[in-house]
Amino acid sequence: MFSVGIVGTGSYVPENVMTNRDFEKFVDTNDEWISSRTGIRERRIAPKDMPVSELCYQAGLRALEDAKVAPEDVDLVIVATITPDYVFPATACLVADRLGAKNAAAFDLEAGCTGFIYGVATASQFVATGMYKTALVIGGETMSKILNWEDRSTCILFGDGAGAAVLQPVEEGFGFLSFELGADGSGGELLSQPAGGSKYPASLETIEKNLHAVQMAGKEVYKFAVRIMGEVAIKVLEKAGLTHEDVDLMIPHQANMRIVDAAVKRLGISPDKVIINLDKYGNMSAASIPVALDESFKEGRIAEGDTIVMVGFGTGLTWGACVLRWRKAGLKTND
Ligand code: UT7
């Protein structure tokens, strides 16, 4: 079995910035409520004619460039998203085609905001066994396209973006040290986009009832998130034989600053080791963690050998975490 690490990262967010104040014009909310209750100040919104595949393509391209990997050398493309271009075909196939990754298998993976963690956990199994040498994992969302813009309890929370990582074998002792994944479908209805699938196919009624938009029991999801984030972070560190004292950087899913604060407190790590991007991007679902990872690396916040914990939760309900010992150089293996 090979050790598997992240040897390149990339991200892309749309240019258009939407501030909290912009919401004051069309829903009963205000900047003070949004920033004090969530920590969000602004988010990016994709143009109407920009599908998620475009964001994923841009992030993927940057990650391949960063890793110095040619598209035809990619063996696997996974796109984690809950806002695919289509119900089918998979967005990953469209992205692989645009990238020129013509030798790659490609599929989408749906685990909501935990999608990137599920994605790297899945891809790393293929690389660890030697079945594939290079995998591209992208977390991308256009949440703006599935929001009810009249529902102040959800529309203010989300943003659009994509982040990507290239996985390859790395020197032993580096790369992913442990994963922890979980799911509890009994909470599936707490956060969902009910219509458009086989249970509630699109109809005039589903449109009138706004069932193609995000529905969320915010308080319930909040309670679940506060409990699970700390719990799963502690578990994944234990699995790696580490404690909170070994952590150099924590990248939590970015849904609400109060959820992050609770997890950080539970874990007992210093807040200055925690990466925050929800103030400028809101909750980008599967894209939040990989965008934060890419920006942290590009800003010089990650050094060789650093121990990074990434932890998320999301619709499903799902949760997941991984411990990554940073090593950006891929191992030379015989093809
Ligand atoms: O990635 C996973 C996705 N989702 C999450 O992680 C969300 C988790 N949940 C949360 O982050 C929080 O529950 C929210 C931010 C969604 C809501 O915050 P809260 O502190 O739980 O507020 P609340 O739902 O208890 O609402 C308090 C009040 C209510 O008014 P009343 O009933 O007390 O009069 C809401 O109607 O705040 C009201 N409210 C708002 N007021 C102004 C709800 N949304 C807004 C708003 N602006 N945007």
Outline of the structure:
The chain is of the alpha/beta class and 335 residues long. The chain has helices at residues 20-24, 31-38, 52-67, 91-99, 115-128, 152-155, 204-208, 218-239, 257-267, 278-281, 288-298; strands at 3-12, 17-19, 42-44, 76-80, 105-109, 135-142, 160-170, 175-183, 191-192, 215-216, 249-252, 307-314, 318-325.
Q: Tell me how many strands there are.
A: 13
Assembly category: single chain
* Percentage of residues in DSSP E strands: 15-25%
CATH topology: Peroxisomal Thiolase, Chain A, domain 1
What layout of secondary structure does this protein have?
Layout: E1 3-12, E2 17-19, H1 20-24, H2 31-38, E3 42-44, H3 52-67, E4 76-80, H4 91-99, E5 105-109, H5 115-128, E6 135-142, H6 152-155, E7 160-170, E8 175-183, E9 191-192, H7 204-208, E10 215-216, H8 218-239, E11 249-252, H9 257-267, H10 278-281, H11 288-298, E12 307-314, E13 318-325
Parallel strand pairs: 4-5, 4-6, 11-12
Antiparallel strand pairs: 1-7, 2-3, 6-7, 8-13, 9-10, 12-13
The protein binds oxa(dethia)-CoA.
Oxa(dethia)-CoA binds at residues 29, 33-34, 37-38, 113, 152-153, 156, 191, 216, 218-219, 221-222, 225, 255-256, 283, 314.
